[in-house]
Amino acid sequence: MKALLSKSVGGPETLVLEEVESPKAKPGSAVVSVKAIGVNYPDVLIIEDKYQFKPARPFAPGGEIAGVVKEVGEGVTHVKPGDRVLGNTGWGGMAEELALEAGRLIPIPDSMPFDEAAAFIMTYGTSYHALKDRGHIKPGETLLVLGAAGGVGLAAVELGKAMGARVIAAASSQEKVDLAISRGAESGVVYPTGPFDRDGQKALAELFKGACGPNGADLVYDGVGGDYAEAALRAMAWEGRFLVVGFPAGIPRIPLNLALLKGCDIVGVFWGTAVARDPVGHQRNVKELLDLYAAGKIKPHVSEHYPLARAGEAIAHLASRKAMGKVVVTVD
Fold first, then answer.
1. pLDDT level of residue 320 (50, 70, 90 thresholds)
2. DSSP assignments along 5-34, one per residue
């Protein structure tokens, strides 16, 4: 079988497509014939050794997949050969076949295409955990989403709308804002490209305040970081919740006096560890997300498809921050 491998530290151009031995199902695991792989920002980081986890090389990037169960190992009962599934893999997904713990596999309905299934669990799982478990979102609250047209950002827009919030989308172009509005945001704001000096920071904060209204944002979903974080925090409502999700614009330095003045919470969102620590809660969230999908309230926006041979280009495109929604790699 073929796999796209990281054999040395570097960018997407260092990845190589090679023939490797097909995996076998060990006790408690399953082998999946991969049909589609979702591309996510951790794929950019993991091949550069900048992610929280550093797998031994050679390894394939690809943290979420969809496909068909090929075989199962001893003790596996909740999936069987022939089942259509999606899976949260961490890495290893950019291959024609993948062996992983069977507990990471989730059966999907026949009505869910493989590309949507591969674009589902990491973005919606992260954003649902953020809004529900960490942000305790309530109907009628104002939610400001930074990076609102990216994978997790667009999921947060859809979920915020489905959960009864007033969603304000913030993104780097009008095209991206328009996409977020089409997916449920009430309105949006285009922010300039950073970094910013102090006057630029103040102007950005006023931009966010104007978009949220006089009461500010009850929740900020920050999947961007960098200089945007402080400006968004300044637009926070009293006793609001600032959700720390990701840092494609860099790790921000927040003046903690702002948290005091706003009486607000700065809340970390680490979905992967939350899944490991609370598998029962994760399964409950997965069921609720699949119910929302079945009801037509959420649907992955797959903007582009790449074949496995060009998966490095897919990662590079995501790294450029020009992608909207989800980029998916497909396997024939």
1. confident
2. EB-SSSSGGG-EEEE-PPP-PPTTEEEEEE
